[in-house]
Amino acid sequence: MKKRVLVVAPGRGTYTKDTLNYLSKFPTQTTQFVKQLDEWKKQSGELTITELDQTSTFKNQVHTKGENASVLIFACSYADFLNLDPNEYEIVAVTGNSMGWYSALILAGAMNLQNGYTLINTMGSMMKKEVIGGQIIYPFTHDDWTYDFHEQEKILNLIIKCREEEHGLAFPSIYLGGYLVIGGDQKGLSWLMKTLPQKEHFPFQLINHAAFHTPLMEEVSARAFQLLKPDLFQTPQYPLIDGRGKIWQPYSTSTHDLHNYTLAHQVFAPYNFTQAISVGLKEFAPDNVILLGPGNTLGGSIGQIIVNEKWLGIDSKSSFQARQKEQAFLVSLGL
Questions:
Q1: Beta strand pairing status for 247-248 and 240-241?
Q2: Taking the model in full, what pTM does it have?
Q3: What are phi and psi of 294, to 5 degrees?
Q4: Is residue 292 located within the same domain as residue 163?
Q5: What angle do the packed helices 66-82 and 32-43 form, to 10 degrees?
Q6: Per residue in 178-190, pLDDT tens?
Q7: How far is 72 from 320, CA to CA, in rounded Å?
């Protein structure tokens, strides 16, 4: 009997020195599409996916740049997706985190490969000359992974205080399980980095990330509408869960609305990955959640969401780890 699975595509920051040569582990027939991506990259005068993945040294200033990282991360996710055994798994829904939404559109069939590449490369290259703002990440869970809502409220109040007292601009960017990603200008982020209490290595700033999913991206959204037209989109083959928790169903999706969400709200409003996973669990009750590679940086966040939903009776970090050891519910292909 096939396992019913919720497929999750990761976003920026997931391709690291530990994931170099990620694509070399796949059979040749799985990675045929990479040749096409390489050809399109060459036509743009950019580094190819093969060059980036097969290099011997990971370089932050190369591998984390939007024009390089975005399509590279998608390629790794897509290879994992194509490698799923259709005799073993039945895909019940697809979602993603942040840039992973663009990957999810392709995985779910809402865009073909060429149109999806156009979307990902265009959005990833929007800030080639200058990155607008940045992102920092900060946790708000207890040691057992349950949410500390009092702590979350304090963080959100500090973000408001940052703007009201004119320390700089800062906004909630991504709700990421027990983490809040904050986007803003460098002045605002620097103030928050000094003001938020130190917790281990938090807060820390994400390398080469812009102020994604905040009002600072409104100009990027406007440019995206000029460059990317609705006919790039088609109705999905699988249900798609977006960054608000809305489900786009195969038979009822308006491609006009999907285009509008992808280039507007998704670009300049907070991305609620927590809600997307919660909806995926409750609406589709999958046998497994499959997290595509590269890497496993989303594994902890998804685990925290599962804990706080008390899904399958998992109500703490220790019970999640015990379940993973016994019969993994979250399958991380990037490990």
A1: antiparallel
A2: 0.97
A3: -80, 155
A4: no
A5: 160
A6: 999 999 999 999 9
A7: 31
